Fold:
Amino acid sequence: MEKTSAALWRRIDERYNMIGSECGNCGRAYFPQRIICRKCGRKSVMKEKMLSGNGEIYSYSRIRVPPDDFKDAAPYTVGVIKLDEGPMVEGHIIENGKEIEIGRRVRTVFRKLRVDGDEGLIHYHFKFEPV
Ligand SMILES: [Zn+2]
Structure:
């Protein structure tokens, strides 16, 4: 039981702080964390790495006909962000009055993603905001 709880809190910490991992053998960074480097395999020497959350828009798509969970949010934009440390991350891109275009610099923010059902369970996740 205690192990489960600790694992849960560790995941929350990982998500809230955008802690990825880095291979000490080749320097490649990952998010979410990996225990084995894709390039190095058994030679992996993985360690935690705090990511800056900064990067640029690699690709994006405007969603006008969303899945049911996001119908109240449409239209909205999702995309792939290439973080400065290398990992590619998918997520919502917040349109804070700035034009969204490939190559635009973004920063990571922690925001509400959606609310589930009548009990109002709130899901949070990373989103990306043009800077
Ligand atoms: Zn490696």
